[in-house]
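Teaching note: in complex prediction, the entire set of molecules is handled at once rather than each chain in isolation. The prompt given to students was simply: 'Predict the structure of this complex.' The entities are:
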Amino acid sequence: METRIFKTKELSEKTLAAAKKQAELFLAQKKRKPTLAVVLVGDDPASHIYVGKKTETCKANGLDALDFHLTPADGFARLEELVNKLNKRDDVDGILVQSPLPKDWDEEKIQALIHPSKDVDGFHPENVGALSLNTIKVLETGLPSCTPAGVMEILKEGGITLRGKHAVVIGRSNIVGKPMAQMLLSGDATVTICHSKTTDLEATCRRADVLVAAIGKARFVTKAFVKPGAAVIDVGINREMRDGKAKVVGDVDQESVTGVASFLTPVPNGVGPMTIAILIRNTVRAAFNRSA
Ligand code: GUN
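The expected output is the structure of the full assembly:
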């Protein structure tokens, strides 16, 4: 079995180019750029890199990005104050508070505090509910959670059809697993969600025509999990030391599943760039939807 390794460079560039066009239209109509406020708390090096990438991609595609940096010593109330202020600012279209927050800070409270019209992560209960009730509409015009929405674009571009297929998602997080299952369901797949308590995980995964790995464990998914010919989507971003060097690896053991899967997204250069592209698309959508 030949495995197609699907790098997302072209698709993410196409998605960004479309968002850039819309951002230019917004600027022409409203005399300001769609604007994303990014809030980082603390000094986690990985979060610094992600946030830098998000603001850089905004600026390269006709959006403005505003950076806000708090320290854990500022306290949770200070973050709430900042989000309230950003909610009120008419020149801010999207608000993203980078996860993880310091230990013991109430992430859910912040997700619910961000105004749903500015919730470009799609984490607010109102947007989560809308995704559940009206998945296709949210995917097309709303603020869907970025990573699973990016996976849907990959499947479409890759020619992976969902109707009548069995899709298995490993991982039940609010950020990826749960919204991913909703989206696959909206594509008429039969969906199974697996997690750490699932018995006979390998056998369940081997029934998948489409397997989405979002576990957060490096190279967890081997060929023992993969039905010959299945499409495998790797959502993982794990840091590993190999030969004395830090390396980013996915949740899928690419070497093991190559030759078994028909389609595989690599890490890096797979799902990651699509997550950022959808974030930019969501921010431009938020700008238009707020001003409608
Ligand atoms: N940290 C890792 N991924 C994400 C994401 O998609 N959104 C936010 N806000 N924080 C993250």
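Point out the following to students. Residues 9-30 form the longest helix (22 residues). Residues 145-272 form a domain with the Rossmann fold fold (CATH 3.40.50.720).
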